[in-house]
Structures are given as structure tokens and as C-alpha cells.
Amino acid sequence: MRQVEGPSTRIDLTGAFFSTVAPSEPPFVFAPHLVALIYCEPTESGDGVFEVVFRKGPKEEDEQVARNVSPFRVDPGKFTYRLVRGELEFDDYGQVFAHCRVNRDAWTIVPLTLLPRPNS
């Protein structure tokens, strides 16, 4: 994050992805970082809880493989961010879904696809 003219804040992200080549042949553990930008309405208190549940599918009843819950404080009318690292065990290539929400709001679902390593 950096201040730029305005006074506004700029967030520069490198290495963001929704799919990637697996680190090795299965089984393996993959530990991606999830970045979430959280906005607080000017009329809200600014106190909240950010929850991420990594699941094997996009449905709420799909198997949970990891979970992270972290409180946050943000000034009303502003943004904050959270960096969540999941340690995810994979028996095979495929997808994992990060189910994300603030407080008890609706889930936002973000897929991550792990692809086989190309043959050399």
C-alpha cells in the first residue's frame, strides 16, 4: 500500500491468481494467500469479523478443509484489508473454494484451481 496524490491510497498487487500449477505430484499441501478488501459504510461502526472457510466445493454443505476468523477495525467510510493464509491438503488436482464473509453477511465464493504439472 502506498499514498499517492489526492490523498488517496494505492494497493499494488503482484502474483494474484485464480489457478496455478500444483507444487508437486499429489498428495501435497498448498498454502495460498487470500487478500480481501473490506469496506465500511459511513453509517456502520467499523468493528467486524472476517471469516474464510475453505471448502472442497462451492456449496455451504461441501466439506470444510480449513477455516480462519479474524476481527478487524476500520474507520467508517474507509477500507481495510485482510491477508489469510490457508494450509490446504490436496489428494488430487482440482479446485478449492474460499467462502468469505464479513460478520454474518452473505458468502462471497472465490475458486482456486490447482492444475497438473506439465510434462517436460
Describe this structure in words.
- The chain is mainly β and 120 residues long.
- It has a single domain (18-115), classed as Immunoglobulins (Immunoglobulin-like, Sandwich), CATH 2.60.40.10.
- Helices cover 0% and strands 54% of the residues.
- It has strands spanning 2-4, 8-10, 19-21, 28-30, 33-39, 47-55, 64-73, 79-85, 88-90, 94-102, 108-115.
- It is globular.
- The chain starts with a strand and ends in a 5-residue tail after the last strand.
Sheet with the most strands? 5 strands, mixed
Q: What is the mean predicted local confidence, pLDDT?
A: 91
> What is the number of helices?
0
Tally of distinct domains: 1
Q: Class in CATH?
A: Mainly Beta
Helix content: under 10%
What would CATH call the architecture? Sandwich
Total DSSP E strands = 11
Give the N-terminus to C-terminus distance in angstroms.
38 Å
Outline type: globular
Task: List the defining traits of the structure above.
120 residues, 0% helix, Immunoglobulin-like, mainly beta, five-stranded mixed beta sheet
Task: Give me a quick take on this structure.
Helix content is 0%, strand content 54%. The protein is mostly beta strands.
Secondary-structure blueprint:
Elements lengths: L1 E3 L3 E3 L8 E3 L6 E3 L2 E7 L7 E9 L8 E10 L5 E7 L2 E3 L3 E9 L5 E8 L5
